[in-house]
Amino acid sequence: MSAGGHVLILVLTAISLLFIVRMVRRNQLPSRYALLWLSIGAVLAFVATFPRVLDRASSWLGIAYAPGTFFLGAITLLFLIVVHFSWELARLDARTRLLAEELAILRADPPHDTPRSPATTSEDQPVDR
User: Fold this and answer.
1) Does the pLDDT at position 128 exceed 60?
2) I want to staple 9 with a disulfide (CB 3.0 to 4.6 A). Which of 48, 96, 110, 112 is the partner?
3) Residue 11 backbone zone (phi > 0: left; psi -120 to 50: alpha; other: beta)
4) Range of 83's domain?
5) Is residue 90 part of a domain?
6) Do residue 5 and residue 36 come from a single domain?
7) What is the pLDDT of residues 43-64, one digit of tens each?
8) Helices (H), strands (E): how many in the chain?
9) Residue-averaged pLDDT of the chain
10) Distance from C-alpha of 19 to C-alpha of 107, rounded to nearest angstrom
């Protein structure tokens, strides 16, 4: 890749990192996910700055085409992120279901020790005849 390509990748990575920091500061992105994306951005910046590292990693893994190594790593990372988000979604779904069930129980059976307001006394209720 040419020097211009590496500079372009560095600029895009810096813009992405600034965007992530901005989202964290506005409380739009939890810090645990920000750490993940900032780490990915740091790795991208490192690979863009020192492209020979990717070549060495490719030859060490026995892969002849260095961009193939990059895409293999990216696809693996994205797969792991999708699995994590699926696990998180299932956990939150179960928690939401439990909270909805507890709310339904509370609404169906109000506590008996709560005082009645004057508007709901038995004298005000119509009598069925």
Assistant:
1) no
2) 48
3) alpha
4) 65-108
5) yes
6) yes
7) 888 888 888 898 999 999 999 9
8) 4, 0
9) 84
10) 44
For 36-45, write each residue's pLDDT tens digit: 888 888 888 8
Long-range contacts, 36-44 (Cβ 8 Å, 24+)? 36/81, 40/77, 41/13, 41/16, 41/17, 42/17, 44/9, 44/13
* Domain assignment present for 58: no
Note whether residue 55 is domain-resident: no
**Residues 40 and 11 both lie in one domain:** yes
Segment 74-120, tens digit of pLDDT: 999 999 999 999 999 999 999 999 999 999 998 988 767 666 555 55
Which residues have C-beta within 8 Å of that of residue 55, sequence separation ≥ 6?
A: 66
98 and 69, same domain (yes or no) = yes
**pTM of the predicted protein model:** 0.65
Number of domains in the chain: 2
Residue 114 lies in a domain: no
3-state secondary structure at position 58: helix
